[in-house]
Amino acid sequence: MTVSELVTKLGLNVLSDETGLERQITGGYTSDLLSDVMGHANAGKIWITLQTHKNVMAIASLKELAAVVLVKGYQPEADMLAQSNIEEIPVLGTAEEAFEISGQIYKLLND
Amino acid sequence: MTTEKMHFEYPVEGGNFSAAGFPSSQVKKTLKQLNVDGNVIKRTVVALYEAEVNIVAHAFKGVIAVDIDTEKIHIRLTDEGPGIPDIKKAMEIGYSTATPEVREMGFGAGMGLSNMKTNADSLVITSEVGKGTIVEIINYFHK
After folding, report:
1. Which end of chain B has fewer beta carbons closer than 10 Å to its terminal beta carbon, N or C?
2. What are A52-82's pLDDT values in tens digits?
3. Residue A52 forms contact with B (CB below 8 Å)
């Protein structure tokens, strides 16, 4: 499934520029600890988190993640957004909590 | 792959999280250009990023020296900082001396050194309390 398809199916907000939406999602990883994601998330995963700073994008880029989803209506800091556009890794937003959105994404990817 | 040896240096500023990741990103690009195995690249950038973040989170400043030849990448991170009194303790998963501010960012969970160990073929840490720490990471391109 592409990021774009996921956005449509779950009604997610695209907070960054509309670049990188064609990236393929191979799975998800839910965590707010950056070293946990660094150590355990694989390429193509969508990262569900409440962290909103630029380092999130550094990790997303180094790990070649598909996209980042910010939960509970959290907004990215300006430099996170700028970096997202440079890396062409979309930052998405949802009003849902991490548990709910992770479950919904899991279901879509595994049905 | 080229037979030339390559050398790069990157300064690191303590406390400046917004610049963190640049050296890892550059190293990743260089290794890709050299057609190094993807798994080696992934392991190297994880180890390097964690080591860099440790300088940003704990030290005043540091330098990352990267040497690449046909066989391996050798990364030496030298910092001026508080040093590590008990390296064995620091290696334990979950042990951290990071400040509350650093922890709020999602760093400082005590996983960094363990990530470095897992993702480096060789990891050597030497430290002098009150002076600084030297971290050496070596990854080989062919096992």
Report:
1. C
2. 999 999 999 999 999 999 999 999 999 999 9
3. no
